[in-house]
Write a structure and sequence with these properties.
The chain is α+β, with helices and mostly antiparallel strands. It contains 8 helices and 14 strands. Strands 9, 10, 11, 12, 13 and 14 form a 6-stranded antiparallel sheet that branches. Strands 5-6-7-8 form a 4-stranded mixed sheet. Strands 1-4 form a two-stranded parallel sheet. A hairpin with a 4-residue loop joins strand 9 and strand 10. The longest helix has 25 residues.
Length: 307
């Protein structure tokens, strides 16, 4: 059970190493300007590999539940999917296993990859656990710690965790089959508080001047490529240009020219950006194309959103 690209390596290992009975994914939906019907990456994979595919609108639909039951599966595996009702996750005799992109109980929620960077963690990882009523709280089966690099972006950490996930999943399946895994309750013994990882809204990535500069730098990396850390540049003419900041750094020389934005305790130099409706470009090329110089910057509406 899954939908995005992140689930594909796990789906592939299930196809190769188990008797994969069916795939459950999100329904097809209109996308793009032409509103053509689009399938999730997982649904597309299932069709291409001729794996039986179920795409229920409602997970409590009686017909869907009967279809699931008729499969007589030993185990359900969930990777980046919707919240399941008990009628689904409690159906197979071995229960339902979830692959989560953090070291639970840290970063429970829909977007643990981006928030690991935004919160400044030096380590994150993957967890396999059994589903139960409260989201992301079930007993842990196995975990795989992975470092968060100092220049990590949401995109690079996504790729790192996505490629590591099938190995952990296969180890977990082998342990369950051999009856050697002992599930353990989630307990937090760390000195730091548990951090949230809510679903990312566009306003989460809006930058604002009251941010510490180190936090702003993490925000830029965490929300690259999606949804993109954003702000509005103000020109001498009064025109405002909304941009997404794709790459920034602490200035090496306070006297150097370039596109700098000030925060509560320092400045960042923007190296690459994406103006609204345009492609990604170097900041130097962007400045050369302006008719008026940059006077300052403003936060976008709703920019005080916090996790």
């Amino acid at each position: 059970m899954g939908s995005p690209e992140f689930a594909l390596p796990c789906l592939h290992v299930l196809q190769e190493e188990t008797e994969l009975l069916a795939v459950v994914s999100a329904p097809d939906k209109p996308a793009g300007r032409g509103k053509q019907m689009s399938s999730s990456p997982v649904a597309t994979y299932a069709r291409e590999h001729k794996i039986p595919l179920l795409q229920p609108e409602r997970l409590k639909n009686p017909e869907f539940l009967l279809q699931l039951k008729s499969l007589q599966a030993d185990l359900f595996v969930v990777v980046a999917f919707r919240m399941l009702p008990e009628a689904v996750w409690n159906m197979p005799p071995m229960g339902t296993l979830n692959v989560h992109a953090s070291l639970l109980p840290q970063l429970r929620g829909a977007a643990p990859i981006q928030w690991a960077i935004a919160h400044g963690l030096k380590e994150t990882g993957l967890t396999t656990f059994r589903l139960k009523h409260e989201i992301d709280t079930g007993d842990i089966l196995e975990q795989l710690p992975l470092p968060v690099a100092v220049d990590e972006t949401g995109g690079s950490l996504y790729e790192k965790l996505m490629q590591a996930a099938p190995g952990l999943l296969l180890n977990t399946l082998n342990g369950l089959a051999a009856n050697t895994l002992v599930p353990r309750p989630q307990e937090w013994t760390g000195d730091e508080p548990l951090l949230p990882a809510p679903k990312i809204q566009r306003q989460h990535a809006f930058l604002h001047p009251e941010m510490p500069v180190q936090q702003a730098e993490r925000w830029i990396r965490a929300f690259d490529p999606i949804p993109g850390a954003a702000l509005a540049l103000v020109l001498e003419s009064g025109e405002r240009i909304e941009i997404k900041v794709k790459q920034a750094r602490l200035p090496k020389d306070t006297g150097q020219s370039g596109l700098k934005v000030a925060f509560v305790d320092g400045e960042l130099e923007i190296l690459r950006l994406q103006p609204a409706g345009k492609g990604i470009m170097d900041a130097a090329a962007f400045l050369r194309g302006l008719r008026h110089s940059v006077r300052g910057w403003l936060p976008l509406v709703g920019s005080h959103a916090q996790p």
